[in-house]
Amino acid sequence: EIVMTQSPATLSVSPGERVTLSCRASQSVTSSLAWYQQKPGQAPRLLIYGASTRASGIPARFSGSGSGTEFTLTISSLQSEDFAVYYCQEYHNWPPIYTFGQGTKLEIK
Amino acid sequence: QLQMQESGPGLVKPSETLSLICSVSAGSISSSPYYWGWIRQPPGKGLEWIGSIYYTGSSYYNPSLKSRVTISVDTSKNQYSLKLSTVTAADTAVYYCARSGSGLPRWGQGTLVTVSS
Hints:
The structure holds two protein chains of two kinds. By secondary structure, chain A is mainly beta. Chain A is built from no helices and eleven strands. Chain A has strands at residues 4-7, 10-13, 19-25, 33-38, 45-49, 53-54, 62-67, 70-75, 85-93, 96-100, 104-108. Chain B is mainly β. Helix content of chain B is 0%, strand content 48%. Chain B has no helices and eleven strands. At the A-B interface, strand 5, strand 9 and strand 10 of A face strand 5 of B.
């Protein structure tokens, strides 16, 4: 069973700053890594899939990188609407198995 | 645009079976190669994948829940369902349905199910 570990658990940042979130897999997931944003009372929204491909409609300030066991999500210039919880997830298209990290909360400094 | 909507009781008694339905609109549940899944989130906690099903009925479950979970599909109604047996307070969560496709790009809005007597 693959375990996904995100760090840090909480990050306090100011609007306009650049921020990097980390996600580590207990074993290689190649590039089958997705990132989600979740705001209070809402369903998660897919931001990145395939480790680095932005989903439809996602602003260019969101970027993903990494492969194997180490992944990062970077937000180049934080906007007020970006304060949320972010989850990484490893996925398999076949069979359809998904494992989430525990999340990183971005809060306003 | 594909729409997904969860429905079912918001309150379930301990030891009983939780039952939810996900209704899919503006798209066919028989569309290949998508899987249709359930994910849950206890209040204030993270996301947990429960299981997924293909329109043919092939299903895969989280090993930690496998003994209590059944996911089934009804293509004639364009919906699929979740049954979780012998529930406890630990099963209190928002339950989401979601469609696969390089991650999970489509989600329902979620429905809160509380396990309490």
